[in-house]
Amino acid sequence: MALKKYIIERDIPGVGKMNEGELSGAANTSNDALCKIGASDIQWVESYVADDKTFCVYLAKDEDAIRKHAELSGFPANKITEVKTMIDPATAQ
Question: What CATH number labels 4-84?
Fold first, then answer.
């Protein structure tokens, strides 16, 4: 089964003020949860850190895999949105 792309919005107060060590610890926690679920079901692509939120890009078989990751990692998945397609400036040409 092909994995679908999702954007996960996580409300994490103060995340934008975390130092490198704290962010590294959060990444380790996330990676541990991913290992428990399995790479065939979910993969973390990248995350964008704002003041009190993160916006994470994941590939997953379905929303349930993302919810399972949230449960195991302790990081909320406040909003899960499936990406249908992508556009960029070159799309205009």
Answer: 3.30.70.3090
